[in-house]
Specification:
- The complex is a heterotrimer of chains A (about 525), B (about 425) and C (about 290).
- Chain A is mostly helical.
- Chain A contains 15 helices and one strand, in the order βααααααααααααααα.
- In chain A, helix 2 packs antiparallel against helix 15, helix 9 runs antiparallel to helix 10 and helix 11 runs parallel beside helix 14.
- Chain B is α+β, with helices and mostly antiparallel strands and about 425 residues long.
- Chain B contains 13 helices and ten strands.
- In chain B, the strands form two sheets. A five-stranded mixed β-sheet of chain B has the order 3-2-1-5-8.
- In chain B, helix 1 packs across helix 7.
- Chain B is elongated and about 95 Å long.
- Chain C is about 75% helix and about 0% strand.
- In chain C, about 40% of the residues are buried.
- In chain C, helix 3 crosses helix 4, helix 5 packs antiparallel against helix 6 and helix 6 runs antiparallel to helix 7.
- The chains are: A mainly alpha (about 525), B alpha+beta (about 425), C mainly alpha (about 290).
- Chains in contact: A-B, A-C, B-C.
- The interface between A and B is large, with 102 and 101 residues.
- Strand 1 of chain A pairs parallel with strand 1 of chain C, so a sheet runs across the interface.
- The structure holds heme-A (2 copies), dinuclear copper ion (CUA) and copper (II) ion (CU).
Chain lengths: ~525, ~425, ~290
């Protein structure tokens, strides 16, 4: 029999008290919660920046902020949302869920886990501090293209080192997750029996470890170009500004799948539960995820169709990108098949999961349009792209996080959330997110470039509609916050299984799950 | 009263009439694609753009079909297989046949799209044959056009009205400016039915040259030249914008292409040569054809000759009166003119506070050399600093430059006490 | 699974990670301020570095003590191994970025600037013809000599390869419980590492003083110093790690079948070795 030892002086089942519990904790559930709380705060910070963007764009003319500040908001909004909200949210879910889903007592490297989390506030301290520096925060877009980014003021080195620190955090978090999945599974939990969320994270962790160092390398070259006279991105010295874009997007494209694969995992857990029917095509789901990850390394050039790549490059990246639609399609169709002939109920998690399937598909299809090199020369750097990626990121990835929180909240807190408020949150969000982002397709096609604080009069109508959608969407998130707070503070007690159709190890645990679980590994048949 | 003023008065009185007249006698029509509630890409005016448009519509309809299939499929299940309607869950969870089908069909669909996409891409990429070449250089924040076979060269920047309306608390509302943010002082003039090769590059940061009706955009990258081509079929005015984030005023560097019939174009070229045979850097050219386009600003620009993007009317008048009499201007007038010019030309980089921006754009306020070195600062402003974003402003009038220099040496507590007179500038030219 | 009889160790709390955080903030923030020309940047940086270093030492000390107390089982050992392997993979990708830059410059940007792209070459760079090594079309009057491959770098390659061999000897000896052999093997490795770094430093001085080859000598200098520089940093870290292991061997921390610390450092060293081979071929030889 196997069991777990802990430092002797602790009571085995209650967490220590006080602030040091959170500072020094190595417990995967504590860290998962820390990650998720951090992500929620950052979602609001990044969302507040988005609100400034939408207010400025509410009508033509410079109504609220200076263009330079607007660019800072665009840049910081993206950095905060991606590195502060979405990635930590997924890592938090991984921390809380993976050990209980595979029957492990904790993560493989608990101390590293603690470090990886606390690096996040450190990185964001440096990054958000730049808002108060002379010259302001980074304003060259989240893609940080040189030479523009080299015109940044005092914020420049802070940006670089913040990216380094956030990168170390993600890499450490992912190494830990990968080692946990590969090494800590309960007896009988073979790879092909793992829940898909675990599979998705294994592959995501691989992507993160593979590409975050490349981003670190790219920004390091920016740093030396700025301060140490190197010429990586300077034609006069034999470099090329476009070289940065290649290196950046070698990171950047896998990064966007880092932001969606865990979402696929979540949806694959929720749909079968509420359809009361096993997931259709488990193994093809796994292979599809792996194929997407593989393809993600060879499609980066689709962000650069307008930079003047040789024809062969354009065509190669176009074909490779189009191919991604195939495995992704398999996933969409498998979810549809799971619902087919099921017996569905529509609690909030399921509603968000269903919205995910439809809205992500819309975003994916506009992605395929963008993938066509000749037409992307029209779409590129317009609001059509902005519409594309918010469909996959907001109504895709963020919706999956909403779904996950509603789905597992009873397991975390022991209380049911307020279903009525949850439904309000869902309907308001789903309607307003479309009001917010759908008109942006039209704006882009009609010729509105992205990253502009002011626009020609012909774009006024759709921008106003989009902004109104944005405000409603933003306000709806206050409901989400309220639901969570309410649920943490009390409510109807949740059963162990919580959902009638729920399957998997985590649902065999009591709700709320005890501080330490599976000290004796369960046997999975 | 000089000619410039006269025409301005005339324009004010007869404006509406003139507008009607020009609209009917329009040699080059305004494209009707740009309008409120616009939903779609333009079909454009080149063979490329049309092909691109068709490809766009093809993939759009396919996407629409797939999107509908998924949406309807999901919603059907939601309605049909709900527990409350008594649905009993089946337990099947696998079917290799079905999975192969929905792997292969999407693949075939993609193959079907890839063929025309490849053909179009090959065509766009082929810049080997051309009848004329225009070199386009992006600057923060304007475009430079050089006609390589014609010895014509000029800068093109945001037109004056847009520039006044785009400030916070502007003097005129954006809503009152025609082609707000989509108009320039000197448009690019090209002939129709001619294969034009564009050579794109940039001086400082990356920009992107985009006119939707030509069917593509292409990045302008410092140190490298990108090639693209267009053959415009219909005379007209086509508008676009810089499409790569290039700093603070990225939103304010529009592009206007005026396509003329061959003979009109030749007349235009002849005129450029006549007025401005040297094609010297910074000299304004290219106002006339804009007039034929018939927009009020462009008409005005025609009558005035040199586009005067700099100063507000009133201040310019003061300057002109003074200069006209060959008299010195008062310090107050100089400061007033200077402030106007500064706010429209320099503020983007050196900021309203004169504190500059970041590492790249030096502060003028409290800048020792600006305060003390009279000749140097005159030289920097008139001739620019080569290889940096700081361009030559010699193209401004003597009065504007005098005001500007007086302003930057005295504003923000610089208080050098220096006064620059138009005559000083004249002498330095 | 195999760990069925093992006891899994979960450290309940650990203060070192959190204590290290202010260190990293000070280090990064201080360096930033220093680069911006602020006068308190440097002191901040030093304080940050000291804190970070202390944190690292304490953290490792805890791990070593736990290991000595036999709190770790086979499963923990596997976790460590996998963690180390993934970490080295991430390092490989980090170097990948710089190798990518080198290849891109040589295969694309230099030829384009230097004549293969007629428009770029003719209109922007006076039709100069460039070939590797070059400082770029904007620094044509900059005279420099590239680093030759034959003398120092070849010696260094041999040194590093030899160090790989001595390390392997030590590893085998470890498995056979030949403690003295382990010690001399390790000592030789560390020594060779130090010699390598000395030669490397000499090469840098030579580059700056005699060849006029510097960081700012265009793309050649950029890639040369970036790649060899980061490699040098890794050699230094690897040598320090091996040195610590050497001391632990002397203290008798390891046994024939329980010496993960040794192996981790050895893997790292071999990785540094392999990177060097890449460097030797692509930076010096070709
Ligand atoms: C979660 C994040 C995410 C995801 C999942 C995706 C998914 C995809 N993206 Fe997107 N993308 C972004 C985030 C994301 N993207 C971001 C942030 C940017 C902008 C970055 C910046 O510049 O700031 C961007 C930009 C971007 C561009 C560059 C546009 C430009 O700047 O010009 C392109 C071009 O090819 C592209 C393509 C795709 C494709 C083909 C997919 C595919 O993976 C989609 C696959 C899915 C489907 C196709 C739908 C389901 C499939 C079926 C129902 C099967 C049948 C379908 C067919 C046969 C077509 N994306
Ligand atoms: C995960 C990533 C993510 C997420 C979640 C979002 C969420 C949102 N994004 Fe953004 N966005 C990006 C990633 C993301 N975005 C990226 C990568 C870019 C490109 C940047 C670049 O060009 O470099 C971008 C750019 C971008 C632009 C284009 C800017 C430009 O080109 O100039 C716009 C414009 O509308 C926008 C809007 C929004 C809005 C309205 C939301 C909303 O969903 C946000 C909703 C959330 C809240 C509002 C917070 C919660 C509520 C409150 C704080 C209460 C108070 C509310 C009110 C007062 C109303 N985003
Ligand atoms: Cu020039 Cu944007
Ligand atoms: Cu991509």
């Amino acid at each position: 029999m196997s069991s777990t030892t802990h430092d002797a002086h602790h009571d085995h089942h209650a967490p220590p008290k006080g602030i040091t519990r959170w500072l020094f904790t190595t417990n995967h559930k504590d860290l998962g919660i820390l990650y998720m709380v951090f992500a929620l705060i950052m979602f609001f910070v990044g969302g507040a920046m988005a609100m400034i963007i939408r207010v400025e764009l509410f009508q033509p003319g410079l109504t609220l902020v200076d263009p330079h500040f607007f660019n800072q908001m665009t840049t910081m909004h993206a950095l905060v949302m991606i590195f502060g909200a979405l990635m930590p949210a997924f890592t938090g879910l991984a921390n809380w869920l993976i050990p209980v889903q595979i029957g492990a007592p904790d993560m493989a490297l608990p101390r590293i886990n603690n470090w990886a989390f606390w690096l996040l506030p450190a990185g964001f301290t440096l990054l958000l501090l730049t808002l108060f520096l002379p010259g302001g925060a980074p304003a060259g877009g989240w893609t940080m293209y040189p030479p523009l980014i080299l015109q940044l003021g005092d914020a420049f080195p802070f940006l670089i080192f913040a990216v380094h620190i956030l990168g170390i955090s993600s890499i450490m978090g992912s190494i830990n997750i990968a080692a946990t999945i590969l090494n800590m599974r309960a007896p009988g939990m073979t790879l092909m029996k793992m829940p898909l969320f675990v599979w998705a994270w294994l592959i995501t962790a691989f992507l993160i470890v593979a590409v975050m160092p490349v981003l670190a390398g790219a920004v390091t070259m920016l740093l030396t170009d700025q301060y140490f006279g190197t010429s990586f991105f300077n034609a006069a010295g034999g470099g090329d500004p476009v070289m940065f874009q290649h290196i950046f997007w070698f990171f950047g494209h896998p990064e966007v799948y880092i932001l969606i694969l865990p979402a696929f995992g979540i949806v694959s857990a929720i749909i079968p539960t509420f359809a009361r029917k096993p997931l259709f095509g488990y193994s093809s789901m796994v292979y599809a995820t792996a194929s997407i990850a593989f393809l993600s390394f060879i499609v980066w050039g689709h962000h650069m169709f307008s930079v003047g790549m040789p024809l062969a490059g354009q065509l190669f990246f176009m074909y490779a990108t189009m191919l991604v639609a195939v495995p992704t399609g398999v996933k969409i169709f498998n979810w549809m098949a799971t619902m087919w002939q099921g017996s569905m109920t529509f609690e909030t998690p399921m509603l968000f999961a269903i919205a995910f399937v439809i809205l992500f598909t819309i975003g994916g299809l506009s992605g395929v349009m963008l993938a066509l090199a000749p037409v992307d020369l029209q779409y590129h750097d317009t609001y059509f792209v902005v519409a594309h990626f918010h469909y996959v990121l907001v109504s895709g990835a963020i919706f999956s996080v909403f779904a996950a929180v509603y789905f597992w909240l009873p397991k975390w807190t022991g209380n049911m959330y307020d279903e009525r408020l949850g439904k309000w949150h869902f309907w308001l969000s789903t309607i307003s997110v479309n009001v917010l982002f759908f008109p942006q397709h039209f704006l882009g096609l009609a010729g509105m470039p992205r990253r502009i604080p002011d626009y020609a009069l012909q774009f006024a109508e759709f921008n106003m509609i989009s902004s109104i959608g944005g405000f409603v969407f933003g306000l709806s998130q206050l409901i989400f916050l309220w639901v969570i707070i309410k649920c943490v503070r009390g409510g109807e007690k949740a059963s162990d299984q919580v959902w009638e159709g729920a399957k998997g190890l985590e649902w065999t645990l009591p709700s709320p799950a005890p501080y330490h679980t599976f000290e004796r590994p369960p046997v999975v048949k | 009263m000089n000619l410039k003023k006269l025409t301005r008065v005339l324009a004010a009185v007869g404006g509406p009439g003139l507008l009607l007249f020009s609209a009917s006698a329009l040699a080059v029509p305004e494209s009707d694609w740009r309008r409120p509630w616009g939903l779609n890409l333009p079909q454009g005016v080149t063979s490329l753009s049309e092909q691109v448009y068709n490809l766009h519509m093809l993939v759009f309809y396919i996407s629409l079909a797939i999107g509908l299939f998924v949406t309807v499929g999901v919603l059907y299940s939601v309605v049909k297989f709900r527990k409350s309607a008594g649905a009993v869950p089946a337990q099947w969870h696998h079917s290799t046949t079905v999975e192969i089908i929905w792997t292969v069909i999407p693949f075939l669909i993609l193959l079907f799209i890839a063929i025309p996409a490849t053909q179009t891409m090959i065509k766009i990429d082929d810049t080997s044959e051309y009848d004329m070449t225009v070199k386009v250089t992006g600057y923060q924040w304007m475009w430079e056009y050089e006609y390589l076979d014609e010895d014509i060269q000029f800068f093109s920047r945001l037109d004056r009205d847009s520039d006044r309306a785009r400030r916070r608390n502007p003097e005129i509302r954006p809503q009152d400016v025609e082609h707000y943010l989509l108009n320039v002082d000197n448009p690019l003039v090209v002939p129709v039915n001619t294969r034009i090769r564009f050579l794109l590059t940039a001086n400082d940061v990356i920009h992107a040259w985009w006119v939707p009706e030509l069917g593509w955009k292409k990045d302008a990258i410092p140190g490298f030249i990108n090639e693209a081509w267009a053959e415009i079929r219909e005379p007209g005015v086509y508008r676009g914008q810089c499409a790569e984030l290039c700093g603070r005023d990225h939103a304010f560097m529009p592009i206007v292409v005026v396509a003329l019939e061959q003979e009109d174009y030749e007349a235009w070229v002849a005129e450029q040569r006549g007025d401005n045979g040297t094609g010297e850097l910074g000299e304004p050219v290219g106002a006339q054809p804009a007039a034929e386009a018939g927009t009020p600003e462009q008409r005005e620009a025609m009558v005035e000759g040199a586009p005067d993007t700099a100063a507000d009317d009133a201040d310019t008048d003061v300057a002109e009166d003074a200069a006209g009499n060959g008299e010195d201007m008062s310090t107050d007038d100089l400061m007033a003119v200077g402030r106007q010019v500064y706010d429209s030309q320099c503020i983007a980089c050196h900021q309203a506070t004169g504190q500059g921006l970041g590492a790249a754009f030096p502060a003028l306020a409290g800048n020792e050399r600006v305060i003390e070195d009279r000749d140097w600062v005159k030289d920097v402003v008139m001739n620019g600093v080569p290889g940096t974003a700081m361009q030559a402003y010699a193209r401004l009038s003597d009065e504007d430059l005098a005001g500007l220099l007086t302003y930057i040496t005295n504003a923000w507590d610089n208080d050098s006490g220096e006064v620059f007179q138009p005559a000083d500038i004249q002498a330095a030219r | 699974m195999s760990q069925a009889n093992d006891v899994y160790y979960v450290p309940h709390e650990s203060r070192w990670p959190v204590y290290g955080i202010p260190g990293m903030v000070l280090l990064a923030g201080g360096f930033s301020i220093y680069l911006n020309g602020g006068s308190w940047g440097m002191p901040m940086m030093v304080i940050g570095a000291v804190i970070t270093l202390l944190m690292t030492v304490m953290w490792f000390r805890d791990v070593v003590n736990e290991s000595l107390a036999h709190k770790y089982n086979a499963q923990v050992d596997r976790s460590f191994r996998q963690g180390m392997a993934w970490f080295i993979f991430s390092e490989v990708m980090f170097f990948g970025a710089f190798f990518g830059a080198l290849f891109y410059a040589r295969v694309f940007s230099i030829p384009w600037l230097g004549g293969e792209d007629p428009a770029t070459s003719r209109f922007l760079w006076d039709s100069v013809v460039l070939s590797w090594p070059t400082a770029g079309p904007g620094f044509l009057d900059l005279e420099f000599q590239p680093m030759g491959a034959w003398a120092l770098p070849t010696i260094n390659t041999l040194i590093l390869l030899t160090s790989g061999v001595t390390l392997t000897i030590a590893h085998h000896a470890m498995k056979e419980n030949h403690r003295s052999k382990v010690i001399w093997g390790l000592a030789a490795t560390v020594l060779l590492g130090a010699i390598f770094m000395s030669v490397q430093s000499y090469e840098y001085v030579h580059a700056y003083q005699d060849l006029n080859l510097r960081m700012d000598t265009g793309i050649y200098g950029s890639t040369f110093f970036m790649l060899t520089g980061f490699h040098g940093v890794h050699v230094t870290i690897g040598a320090i790690a091996l040195f610590v292991i050497l001391i632990r061997v002397i203290k008798g921390h390891f046994t024939a079948d329980d010496h993960f610390g040794f192996e981790a450092a050895a893997w790292y060293w071999h990785f540094v070795d392999v990177v060097w081979l890449g460097l030797y071929v692509f930076v010096y030889l070709i």
